[in-house]
Amino acid sequence: MENKNKEIISYLTELALDIRRRIINIAHNVKGEGIHLGGALSSVEILAALYGYVMNFNPDNPTDEDRDRFILSKGHDCLVQYATLNAIGCITDAEIKDNYLTDGGFLPTHTIKNLSKGIECSSGSLGMGLSFATGKALAAKLNKKKYKVFTLLGDGECNEGSCWEAMMAAKQYKLDNLVMIIDKNQLQSDGTTKEIMNVDLFSGISAMGWKVVETDGHDISAIVTYLKELISENNNLPVAIIANTIKGKGISFMENNNMWHHGHLSNEQYEMAINELRV
Predict the structure, then answer these.
(1) pLDDT tens, 185-215?
(2) What pTM value is reported for the model?
(3) Measured between alpha carbons, how far is residue 32 from residues 28, 35, 107, 201 in Å?
(4) Using CA atoms, how far apart are residues 57 and 218, in angstroms rounded to an integer?
């Protein structure tokens, strides 16, 4: 079993590296366009763990009624989801080229619902995703379905009151099939989260009646362990994982640099970034 676990973590680590490379390549191929790179890079290990191992999701059958659902609430960081779906074969290289940020394409700068491509909902204003995920989890309960719903939020997004309303509803309806992961990279578009709205997420979410843990959001082994352990507990509580991350993770000149919340890669910067990912 120990060797099997090592194989899984090794595979997920390679998947995360592949996703990072795809993010950088996709962003660079869109000439002259600014991309939300910082937040996409900070959540790579989270999506690698979910799509690569934790979720019941088959890229060859993305509309399976019993599939686990993933809701990207921090929709402006859609590139990490596009790159992940590309890496696992749900979206082809040609579809990325023809549709990412193209006129009429199905891969714009915020996700548009496309179940055949693994995209569960359209995103827009921050704070929407957790409410959507809560509804999906409640629907599973009402329809006696066993699928789980995972949603990814940003820590800055948790400034939105709708997030906390959804947390109250999830506790009220005992949605232990709902898992919220917060990409806590401590930066948002206008500065640090502490400067803008200093919230103790652990205490606040715990007070809402959720089961809450905090971990290193780049430690795939820890992410997998927490996800597997928490979602297997039948305690009638929704689950939250606060993932401490680094904005721009993996690219030295982007890490903790908020100019990469949204930015354009020059050819020189692209070469620097891709060389750092050649390991």
Answers:
(1) 998 888 889 998 998 999 999 999 999 999 9
(2) 0.96
(3) 9, 10, 17, 37
(4) 22
